[in-house]
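Suppose a colleague, Dr. K., hands you the sequence of a protein chain of 347 amino acids and asks what its three-dimensional shape might be. Before reaching for any lab equipment, you can write down a predicted structure in C-alpha coordinate form. Begin with the sequence itself:
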Amino acid sequence: MSAKWSRILSVSISSIALASTVHPLVASAKDADGKLVIAVSLQSEQEPIWHLWVNSMTAEAERQNARLIVQYANRDPAKQAAQVEQLLAQNPDAFIFNPVNGGAAGPTVDSIKEEKIPVVGFDDVVTGSLTDYLVTRDNYQVGVLQAQEALKVAPKGNFAFIKGDPTWSGWPLIVKGYKDTLAANPDVKTVFDQNANWDPSKAQALAENALSANGDNLQAVVVMNDGMATGVVAAVKSRNLSGKVFVSGMDAETQALKSILDGGQTMSVYTDIDDYGSWAVKAAVALANGETPPSDRMTSTPVGDVPTHLVKTFAVTKENLCETITTKMIAGWTTVQEVFGKPDACK
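The predicted structure, expressed as C-alpha coordinates, is then:
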Protein backbone atom coordinates (compact mmCIF):
# COMPACT_ATOMS: atom_id res chain seq x y z
CA MET A 1 0.00 0.00 0.00
CA SER A 2 1.15 3.41 -0.51
CA ALA A 3 2.04 6.00 2.09
CA LYS A 4 -1.36 7.43 1.29
CA TRP A 5 -3.05 4.29 2.58
CA SER A 6 -0.57 2.91 5.09
CA ARG A 7 1.13 3.53 8.40
CA ILE A 8 4.07 1.59 9.76
CA LEU A 9 3.27 -1.65 11.55
CA SER A 10 4.01 -5.34 11.28
CA VAL A 11 1.37 -8.03 10.98
CA SER A 12 0.30 -10.80 8.61
CA ILE A 13 -3.03 -11.98 7.30
CA SER A 14 -3.65 -15.70 7.14
CA SER A 15 -5.08 -17.32 4.04
CA ILE A 16 -7.63 -19.41 5.92
CA ALA A 17 -11.18 -18.36 5.12
CA LEU A 18 -13.79 -18.23 7.85
CA ALA A 19 -17.16 -19.83 7.61
CA SER A 20 -19.08 -17.04 9.32
CA THR A 21 -22.71 -16.78 10.18
CA VAL A 22 -24.32 -13.92 8.30
CA HIS A 23 -26.69 -11.76 10.33
CA PRO A 24 -28.87 -8.88 9.13
CA LEU A 25 -26.88 -5.68 9.50
CA VAL A 26 -29.74 -3.47 10.70
CA ALA A 27 -29.34 -0.83 13.38
CA SER A 28 -31.48 -0.61 16.50
CA ALA A 29 -32.45 2.64 18.22
CA LYS A 30 -29.85 3.78 20.77
CA ASP A 31 -29.78 7.56 21.22
CA ALA A 32 -32.47 10.16 21.88
CA ASP A 33 -33.11 10.44 18.14
CA GLY A 34 -33.58 6.71 17.81
CA LYS A 35 -30.18 6.31 16.17
CA LEU A 36 -27.22 4.13 17.00
CA VAL A 37 -24.09 6.26 17.63
CA ILE A 38 -20.78 5.28 16.00
CA ALA A 39 -17.55 7.07 16.93
CA VAL A 40 -14.94 7.30 14.17
CA SER A 41 -11.27 8.08 14.78
CA LEU A 42 -9.22 8.58 11.60
CA GLN A 43 -5.49 9.21 11.44
CA SER A 44 -5.68 12.11 8.97
CA GLU A 45 -7.81 14.37 6.82
CA GLN A 46 -5.03 15.78 4.66
CA GLU A 47 -5.72 13.77 1.50
CA PRO A 48 -9.05 13.52 -0.35
CA ILE A 49 -9.42 9.82 0.39
CA TRP A 50 -10.20 10.47 4.06
CA HIS A 51 -13.19 12.61 3.19
CA LEU A 52 -14.36 10.11 0.58
CA TRP A 53 -14.21 7.39 3.22
CA VAL A 54 -16.29 9.54 5.57
CA ASN A 55 -18.79 10.25 2.80
CA SER A 56 -19.20 6.52 2.28
CA MET A 57 -19.52 5.89 6.01
CA THR A 58 -22.08 8.66 6.36
CA ALA A 59 -24.22 7.33 3.53
CA GLU A 60 -24.20 3.84 5.04
CA ALA A 61 -24.94 5.22 8.52
CA GLU A 62 -28.03 6.93 7.14
CA ARG A 63 -29.15 3.65 5.60
CA GLN A 64 -28.58 1.93 8.94
CA ASN A 65 -30.38 4.59 11.03
CA ALA A 66 -27.09 5.43 12.72
CA ARG A 67 -25.18 8.62 13.45
CA LEU A 68 -21.42 9.21 13.13
CA ILE A 69 -19.14 11.33 15.32
CA VAL A 70 -15.85 11.81 13.44
CA GLN A 71 -12.46 13.04 14.66
CA TYR A 72 -9.21 13.38 12.67
CA ALA A 73 -5.87 13.00 14.48
CA ASN A 74 -3.62 14.62 11.85
CA ARG A 75 -1.15 11.72 12.24
CA ASP A 76 -0.47 12.58 15.90
CA PRO A 77 -0.77 9.51 18.21
CA ALA A 78 -1.12 11.63 21.35
CA LYS A 79 -3.84 13.73 19.75
CA GLN A 80 -5.65 10.57 18.65
CA ALA A 81 -5.57 9.16 22.18
CA ALA A 82 -7.03 12.42 23.55
CA GLN A 83 -9.72 12.48 20.86
CA VAL A 84 -10.71 8.92 21.69
CA GLU A 85 -11.32 9.97 25.30
CA GLN A 86 -13.48 12.84 24.04
CA LEU A 87 -15.43 10.45 21.83
CA LEU A 88 -15.92 8.00 24.69
CA ALA A 89 -17.45 10.80 26.74
CA GLN A 90 -20.25 10.90 24.17
CA ASN A 91 -21.21 7.29 24.94
CA PRO A 92 -20.98 5.75 21.46
CA ASP A 93 -22.42 2.30 20.78
CA ALA A 94 -19.51 1.26 18.55
CA PHE A 95 -16.10 2.55 17.47
CA ILE A 96 -14.36 2.63 14.07
CA PHE A 97 -10.66 3.08 14.76
CA ASN A 98 -7.97 3.88 12.17
CA PRO A 99 -4.67 4.05 14.11
CA VAL A 100 -2.00 6.65 13.51
CA ASN A 101 0.50 4.01 14.59
CA GLY A 102 -0.88 0.49 14.80
CA GLY A 103 2.14 -0.72 16.74
CA ALA A 104 1.61 1.81 19.53
CA ALA A 105 -2.19 2.13 19.62
CA GLY A 106 -2.87 -0.85 21.88
CA PRO A 107 -3.53 1.21 25.05
CA THR A 108 -5.94 3.46 23.17
CA VAL A 109 -7.95 0.47 21.94
CA ASP A 110 -7.83 -0.99 25.46
CA SER A 111 -9.44 2.19 26.76
CA ILE A 112 -12.34 1.71 24.35
CA LYS A 113 -12.76 -1.95 25.22
CA GLU A 114 -12.77 -1.16 28.94
CA GLU A 115 -16.05 0.66 28.26
CA LYS A 116 -17.45 -2.52 26.66
CA ILE A 117 -17.68 -0.79 23.28
CA PRO A 118 -16.98 -2.94 20.20
CA VAL A 119 -14.09 -1.76 18.00
CA VAL A 120 -13.79 -2.06 14.23
CA GLY A 121 -10.21 -1.62 13.07
CA PHE A 122 -10.05 0.36 9.84
CA ASP A 123 -7.37 0.00 7.14
CA ASP A 124 -4.43 -0.56 9.50
CA VAL A 125 -4.03 -3.22 12.18
CA VAL A 126 -3.57 -2.61 15.88
CA THR A 127 -0.94 -5.05 17.10
CA GLY A 128 -1.06 -4.47 20.86
CA SER A 129 -4.78 -4.92 21.46
CA LEU A 130 -7.39 -7.09 19.82
CA THR A 131 -10.06 -5.23 17.89
CA ASP A 132 -13.36 -7.03 17.36
CA TYR A 133 -13.20 -6.75 13.58
CA LEU A 134 -11.02 -5.35 10.80
CA VAL A 135 -11.79 -3.78 7.43
CA THR A 136 -8.76 -3.64 5.15
CA ARG A 137 -7.74 -4.04 1.53
CA ASP A 138 -6.97 -7.46 0.06
CA ASN A 139 -3.26 -6.77 -0.33
CA TYR A 140 -2.46 -10.31 -1.39
CA GLN A 141 -4.77 -9.80 -4.35
CA VAL A 142 -2.96 -6.55 -5.18
CA GLY A 143 0.24 -8.55 -5.66
CA VAL A 144 -1.60 -11.14 -7.73
CA LEU A 145 -3.14 -8.49 -10.00
CA GLN A 146 0.16 -6.70 -10.57
CA ALA A 147 1.99 -9.94 -11.36
CA GLN A 148 -0.78 -11.21 -13.62
CA GLU A 149 -0.75 -8.04 -15.69
CA ALA A 150 3.04 -8.20 -15.89
CA LEU A 151 2.86 -11.72 -17.29
CA LYS A 152 0.32 -10.64 -19.90
CA VAL A 153 2.82 -8.10 -21.22
CA ALA A 154 6.00 -10.07 -20.54
CA PRO A 155 5.47 -13.82 -20.11
CA LYS A 156 9.24 -14.24 -19.92
CA GLY A 157 12.34 -12.16 -19.39
CA ASN A 158 13.99 -10.02 -16.73
CA PHE A 159 11.81 -8.61 -13.95
CA ALA A 160 12.76 -5.90 -11.45
CA PHE A 161 10.80 -5.32 -8.23
CA ILE A 162 10.63 -1.95 -6.49
CA LYS A 163 8.68 -2.28 -3.27
CA GLY A 164 7.50 0.00 -0.49
CA ASP A 165 8.16 -0.15 3.24
CA PRO A 166 8.79 -3.70 4.50
CA THR A 167 7.50 -2.80 7.98
CA TRP A 168 4.03 -2.08 6.56
CA SER A 169 1.54 -4.88 7.23
CA GLY A 170 0.54 -5.13 3.57
CA TRP A 171 4.10 -5.54 2.28
CA PRO A 172 4.49 -9.29 2.90
CA LEU A 173 1.03 -9.97 1.51
CA ILE A 174 1.69 -8.18 -1.76
CA VAL A 175 5.07 -9.91 -2.04
CA LYS A 176 3.40 -13.28 -1.46
CA GLY A 177 0.98 -12.43 -4.25
CA TYR A 178 3.95 -11.80 -6.54
CA LYS A 179 5.69 -15.03 -5.63
CA ASP A 180 2.62 -17.24 -5.86
CA THR A 181 1.63 -15.84 -9.26
CA LEU A 182 5.10 -16.01 -10.79
CA ALA A 183 6.06 -19.38 -9.30
CA ALA A 184 4.80 -21.34 -12.32
CA ASN A 185 6.74 -19.19 -14.80
CA PRO A 186 10.36 -20.41 -14.95
CA ASP A 187 11.05 -18.10 -17.88
CA VAL A 188 10.71 -15.07 -15.60
CA LYS A 189 13.99 -14.09 -13.95
CA THR A 190 14.16 -11.69 -11.01
CA VAL A 191 17.24 -9.55 -11.65
CA PHE A 192 16.57 -6.70 -9.19
CA ASP A 193 14.63 -6.49 -5.92
CA GLN A 194 14.77 -3.43 -3.65
CA ASN A 195 12.60 -1.31 -1.35
CA ALA A 196 12.13 2.39 -2.06
CA ASN A 197 10.01 3.07 1.05
CA TRP A 198 7.36 4.87 -1.01
CA ASP A 199 9.86 7.54 -2.15
CA PRO A 200 9.44 8.39 -5.88
CA SER A 201 12.96 9.83 -6.14
CA LYS A 202 14.48 6.73 -4.59
CA ALA A 203 12.35 4.56 -6.88
CA GLN A 204 13.66 6.47 -9.90
CA ALA A 205 17.26 5.97 -8.76
CA LEU A 206 16.66 2.26 -8.16
CA ALA A 207 15.05 1.85 -11.58
CA GLU A 208 18.03 3.57 -13.21
CA ASN A 209 20.34 1.19 -11.33
CA ALA A 210 18.31 -1.82 -12.44
CA LEU A 211 18.37 -0.70 -16.06
CA SER A 212 22.11 -0.01 -16.00
CA ALA A 213 22.92 -3.30 -14.30
CA ASN A 214 21.06 -5.21 -17.00
CA GLY A 215 22.03 -3.23 -20.08
CA ASP A 216 18.48 -1.82 -20.33
CA ASN A 217 17.26 -5.39 -20.80
CA LEU A 218 14.24 -5.31 -18.50
CA GLN A 219 10.84 -6.57 -19.56
CA ALA A 220 8.98 -5.51 -16.42
CA VAL A 221 9.40 -3.30 -13.37
CA VAL A 222 6.83 -4.38 -10.79
CA VAL A 223 6.26 -1.35 -8.56
CA MET A 224 4.11 -1.47 -5.43
CA ASN A 225 2.38 1.92 -5.72
CA ASP A 226 1.68 4.81 -8.06
CA GLY A 227 3.89 7.31 -6.26
CA MET A 228 7.00 5.21 -6.81
CA ALA A 229 5.82 4.37 -10.32
CA THR A 230 6.15 8.04 -11.30
CA GLY A 231 9.88 7.79 -10.63
CA VAL A 232 10.18 4.48 -12.47
CA VAL A 233 8.32 5.85 -15.48
CA ALA A 234 10.74 8.79 -15.58
CA ALA A 235 13.73 6.43 -15.48
CA VAL A 236 12.30 4.25 -18.24
CA LYS A 237 11.48 7.28 -20.37
CA SER A 238 15.03 8.61 -20.02
CA ARG A 239 16.24 5.41 -21.71
CA ASN A 240 13.72 5.78 -24.56
CA LEU A 241 11.98 2.65 -23.33
CA SER A 242 8.60 4.16 -22.51
CA GLY A 243 5.85 1.74 -23.47
CA LYS A 244 8.37 -1.07 -23.95
CA VAL A 245 8.82 -1.95 -20.27
CA PHE A 246 5.89 -2.98 -18.07
CA VAL A 247 5.42 -0.68 -15.06
CA SER A 248 2.80 -1.36 -12.38
CA GLY A 249 1.37 0.72 -9.58
CA MET A 250 -1.34 0.84 -6.94
CA ASP A 251 -3.99 3.40 -5.88
CA ALA A 252 -5.17 4.46 -9.37
CA GLU A 253 -4.63 8.13 -8.67
CA THR A 254 -5.40 10.64 -11.42
CA GLN A 255 -1.76 11.19 -12.40
CA ALA A 256 -1.20 7.44 -12.67
CA LEU A 257 -4.30 7.04 -14.82
CA LYS A 258 -3.03 9.77 -17.13
CA SER A 259 0.28 7.95 -17.35
CA ILE A 260 -1.54 4.72 -18.21
CA LEU A 261 -3.39 6.58 -20.95
CA ASP A 262 -0.10 7.97 -22.29
CA GLY A 263 1.59 4.56 -22.17
CA GLY A 264 4.24 5.31 -19.54
CA GLN A 265 2.68 3.27 -16.75
CA THR A 266 1.07 -0.02 -17.75
CA MET A 267 -1.42 -0.61 -14.97
CA SER A 268 -2.53 0.31 -11.48
CA VAL A 269 -4.79 -1.21 -8.84
CA TYR A 270 -7.94 0.54 -7.59
CA THR A 271 -9.37 -0.28 -4.18
CA ASP A 272 -13.14 0.00 -3.72
CA ILE A 273 -13.30 3.07 -1.46
CA ASP A 274 -17.06 2.86 -1.07
CA ASP A 275 -16.86 -0.77 0.08
CA TYR A 276 -14.19 0.27 2.58
CA GLY A 277 -16.30 2.91 4.28
CA SER A 278 -19.70 1.28 4.06
CA TRP A 279 -18.52 -2.08 5.35
CA ALA A 280 -16.89 -0.50 8.41
CA VAL A 281 -20.27 0.95 9.36
CA LYS A 282 -22.09 -2.31 8.65
CA ALA A 283 -19.69 -4.16 10.93
CA ALA A 284 -19.94 -1.53 13.67
CA VAL A 285 -23.75 -1.71 13.58
CA ALA A 286 -23.74 -5.50 13.74
CA LEU A 287 -21.34 -5.58 16.67
CA ALA A 288 -23.27 -2.89 18.55
CA ASN A 289 -26.37 -5.05 18.18
CA GLY A 290 -24.56 -8.11 19.52
CA GLU A 291 -24.40 -9.73 16.10
CA THR A 292 -21.51 -11.30 14.20
CA PRO A 293 -20.63 -9.54 10.93
CA PRO A 294 -19.56 -11.90 8.13
CA SER A 295 -15.84 -12.09 7.42
CA ASP A 296 -13.51 -13.24 4.66
CA ARG A 297 -10.33 -14.08 6.55
CA MET A 298 -8.69 -14.02 9.95
CA THR A 299 -5.92 -11.47 10.49
CA SER A 300 -3.17 -12.79 12.76
CA THR A 301 -1.73 -10.30 15.27
CA PRO A 302 0.59 -10.81 18.25
CA VAL A 303 -2.43 -10.78 20.58
CA GLY A 304 -4.83 -12.93 18.59
CA ASP A 305 -6.80 -13.32 15.36
CA VAL A 306 -9.24 -10.73 14.08
CA PRO A 307 -12.21 -11.45 11.76
CA THR A 308 -11.58 -9.43 8.62
CA HIS A 309 -13.47 -8.05 5.65
CA LEU A 310 -11.17 -7.77 2.63
CA VAL A 311 -12.00 -4.80 0.43
CA LYS A 312 -12.21 -5.51 -3.28
CA THR A 313 -9.46 -4.45 -5.69
CA PHE A 314 -9.44 -4.07 -9.48
CA ALA A 315 -6.69 -3.97 -12.09
CA VAL A 316 -6.78 -0.75 -14.12
CA THR A 317 -5.30 -0.81 -17.63
CA LYS A 318 -5.58 1.35 -20.72
CA GLU A 319 -8.17 -1.09 -22.06
CA ASN A 320 -10.56 -0.75 -19.11
CA LEU A 321 -9.77 2.84 -18.13
CA CYS A 322 -13.13 4.27 -19.17
CA GLU A 323 -15.10 1.46 -17.58
CA THR A 324 -13.22 1.76 -14.29
CA ILE A 325 -13.61 5.53 -14.03
CA THR A 326 -17.28 5.57 -14.96
CA THR A 327 -18.56 2.44 -13.18
CA LYS A 328 -16.20 1.41 -10.36
CA MET A 329 -14.64 4.53 -8.86
CA ILE A 330 -16.34 6.47 -6.10
CA ALA A 331 -17.57 9.96 -7.00
CA GLY A 332 -14.89 12.49 -6.17
CA TRP A 333 -11.90 10.23 -6.81
CA THR A 334 -11.31 11.37 -10.39
CA THR A 335 -13.22 12.21 -13.57
CA VAL A 336 -13.08 11.49 -17.27
CA GLN A 337 -12.23 15.17 -17.79
CA GLU A 338 -9.27 15.02 -15.41
CA VAL A 339 -7.81 11.90 -16.99
CA PHE A 340 -8.62 12.36 -20.67
CA GLY A 341 -8.77 16.13 -20.87
CA LYS A 342 -12.32 16.12 -22.24
CA PRO A 343 -15.61 15.14 -20.60
CA ASP A 344 -17.00 13.03 -23.43
CA ALA A 345 -13.93 10.81 -24.01
CA CYS A 346 -15.68 7.72 -22.67
CA LYS A 347 -18.95 8.10 -24.57
